[in-house]
Structures are given as structure tokens and as C-alpha cells.
């Protein structure tokens, strides 16, 4: 029989019911499950937030505490909640709820006391034990097997396709990078961190901004100049795919990519698998074309991946090895990480 605390806790119910919608959460609940935001439960931090593990009776969640010092951060919070409330996909991190708490607080200053608002903003997500993709990126000589990498690439592409074309409004992520892609027990990728995202109406194709924020190395040239389009995300996707293939950001020479994988494949399947690597590398290079009009959109990318798989029919031959490899990863990295 469930305890009264479990029944009254919306997060406990959401862990049981996959179809449950995100909901408002109390600050007292978030304090309780994070032991008052204990450093011992901190699992990641970034420029705008700190992430804590939240322990429940029936599982674990991740609680993202946003830094609240500038008005801009309030805008980022509202944008992120708006985007997250719209999405539900196997390759998008599951959003479980939010907390927006504002209280008056007296601040002691030299010679006077000042009453001011203290804002606290939180987002709650499913907990993904393998942490972020950037922790798993390496060259071909070690780390993830080729088929694990391919499945991660495919999952990211499907998640981005859903954001761009899966609803009445198009969602441009604007900060796609390995640190914003989390991995579950089975190494399935899930896109996260929608703080910089933009919503486009069905017919809208671009927006301009004078406040360019993002991650160097993953931003398209037109985005750095203030122009936001769906193709800005495609550029970031291309950089990520090449990084997954090579372990390095910015490597875009086909020969370098193939050279790193040539010695890793068994002779009987090596040529076929190497061609599969080549196809993925060529697709990634198209994504990072300096001319956004020459980049494929997610429909083109998904179509090309679907065309590849019947040709390279070895895609399921590594399933047993992949399962063993994943199990070893879970044992060695059970606490997970968020950045």
C-alpha cells in the first residue's frame, strides 16, 4: 500500500504514470527531495543553473535551479517552460514540472534595511543516469562502439525533427550541443535545456536578435550575426555528428574520419561499416555548410538515414555486444551527470 506522502506527491504519481502532464510543484517539495539543495546531491552546473538529484520513494528526478539575478533569466525561464510544455517525444527529456516562487526579503545594507523580491525558479525532469553526451565522446580507439554512436546520432536527429516539425509551432533549440543531450540507461539520447529556444509559427522562417547567446563552436555563422532559423540548429547537429564520429569538435575531413575507424572494424564487415561511417560523415558535412540554404532539413536527414539502414543490413549484428557494453557503463556510472 502506498504511503500517504507518496500519494500526495505529484512527482511520485508521475513516475508511475508516463502519460501524466507536467504540473506546478511547491518549493517545500523540491527542498524535501533535494535535502534543501544539498551539495551532496548536486549533479551538474552551468552558466544559468545548478542541477540536483531529487530522491523519491519510487525513483529519482532531476531538479534544475535557475540562477535569478537578472530580468533576462526570468525571460529564459518562461521560454523554457513554454517550450517544454509543448513537447513529448522519446528523444526529448521528459519535463515533469516547474516551481516559480517569489517572496519579499529584507536585505541589510550599510545604514539601512531594504525590502526586495527574492525569486526562485525551478524545473523538474526525469533523471537520466548516463549523464550528458559530452562525457561519452571519444575517438574511435575507445569508448562507444560504432553502432552505439549511430543510434545516438539517429536519436538526436529524430528528436530535432520532432522539435522542428512535430507540432503546430516550430521549436528552434538554439543551443544544441553534447552537454545538452542526456542519455538514459540504454544510451538513448534525449535533448534538453530549452532556455534559449524560440517558437516559430507555421509560416515563420526566421527571426532576428541583437542578444546572441549560445555555445562557441556550435553556432552557425548567421546565428552569430543575429539571424535565427531552423537551419541554425542543423549546423549545430552537423558539428555534433562529426564530434561523435571523431571525438573532436571541428574535424570535417572525410579521410580523417575514415582513417580513425578503419582499424576498428572486423575484416568481414569492415568495408560495409566504413561506408556507413562515410555516409554519416558526408551528411554531417552537408549540415555545416556555411550557406544555410544548402544544409538539409530534418526531413531530408531522417529520409537519408532510413535509406541507409536497409543497405547496411548489419545494423542489428552488434545488439548483444551493445547490451553488454551498456550494462558495464551503467554499473560504472550509476550516479549520472548533468551540465
From TrEMBL:
InterPro entries with a match to the protein in the record: Kinase-like_dom_sf, Prot_kinase_dom, Protein_kinase_ATP_BS, Ser/Thr_kinase_AS
Binding, ATP: 64
GO molecular function, one term: protein serine/threonine kinase activity
Keywords: ATP-binding, Kinase, Nucleotide-binding, Serine/threonine-protein kinase, Transferase
Domain Protein kinase: 37-315
PROSITE patterns: PROTEIN_KINASE_ATP, PROTEIN_KINASE_DOM, PROTEIN_KINASE_ST
Similarity field: Belongs to the protein kinase superfamily.
PANTHER family, A to Z: C2 CALCIUM/LIPID-BINDING PLANT PHOSPHORIBOSYLTRANSFERASE FAMILY PROTEIN (PTHR45707), CALCIUM-DEPENDENT LIPID-BINDING (CALB DOMAIN) PLANT PHOSPHORIBOSYLTRANSFERASE FAMILY PROTEIN (PTHR45707:SF69)
Name under which the protein is recorded: Protein kinase domain-containing protein
Organism of this sequence: Eragrostis curvula
Amino acid at each position: 500500500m502506498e504511503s500517504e506522502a507518496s500519494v500526495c506527491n505529484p512527482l511520485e504519481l508521475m513516475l508511475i504514470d508516463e502519460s501524466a502532464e507536467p504540473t506546478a510543484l511547491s518549493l517545500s517539495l523540491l527542498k524535501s527531495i533535494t535535502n534543501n539543495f544539498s551539495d551532496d546531491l548536486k549533479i551538474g552546473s552551468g552558466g544559468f543553473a545548478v542541477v540536483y538529484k531529487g530522491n523519491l520513494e519510487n525513483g529519482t528526478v532531476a531538479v534544475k535551479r535557475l540562477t535569478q539575478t537578472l530580468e533576462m533569466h526570468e525571460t529564459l525561464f518562461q521560454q523554457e517552460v513554454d517550450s517544454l510544455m509543448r513537447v513529448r517525444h522519446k528523444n526529448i527529456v521528459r519535463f515533469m514540472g516547474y516551481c516559480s516562487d517569489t517572496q519579499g526579503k529584507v536585505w541589510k545594507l550599510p545604514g539601512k534595511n531594504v525590502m526586495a523580491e527574492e525569486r526562485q525558479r525551478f524545473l523538474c525532469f526525469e533523471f537520466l543516469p548516463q549523464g550528458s553526451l559530452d562525457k561519452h565522446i571519444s575517438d574511435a580507439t575507445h569508448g562507444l562502439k560504432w553502432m552505439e554512436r549511430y543510434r545516438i546520432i539517429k536519436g538526436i536527429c529524430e528528436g530535432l525533427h520532432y522539435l522542428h516539425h512535430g507540432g503546430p509551432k516550430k521549436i528552434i533549440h538554439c543551443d544544441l550541443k553534447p552537454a545538452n543531450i542526456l542519455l538514459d540507461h540504454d544510451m538513448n539520447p534525449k535533448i534538453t535545456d530549452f532556455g534559449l529556444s524560440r517558437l516559430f509559427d507555421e509560416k515563420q522562417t526566421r527571426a532576428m536578435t541583437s542578444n546572441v547567446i549560445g555555445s562557441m563552436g556550435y553556432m552557425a555563422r548567421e546565428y552569430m550575426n543575429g539571424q535565427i532559423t531552423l537551419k541554425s540548429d542543423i549546423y549545430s547537429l552537423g558539428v555534433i555528428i562529426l564530434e561523435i564520429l571523431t571525438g573532436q569538435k571541428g574535424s570535417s575531413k572525410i579521410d580523417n574520419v575514415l582513417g580513425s575507424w578503419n582499424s576498428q572494424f572486423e575484416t568481414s564487415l569492415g568495408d560495409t561499416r566504413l561506408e556507413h561511417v562515410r555516409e554519416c560523415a558526408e551528411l554531417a558535412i552537408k549540415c555545416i555548410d556555411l550557406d544555410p540554404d544548402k544544409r538539409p532539413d530534418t526531413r531530408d536527414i531522417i529520409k537519408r538515414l532510413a535509406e541507409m539502414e536497409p543497405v547496411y543490413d548489419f545494423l542489428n549484428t552488434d545488439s548483444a555486444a551493445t547490451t553488454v557494453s551498456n550494462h558495464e557503463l551503467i554499473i560504472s556510472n550509476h550516479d549520472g551527470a548533468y551540465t
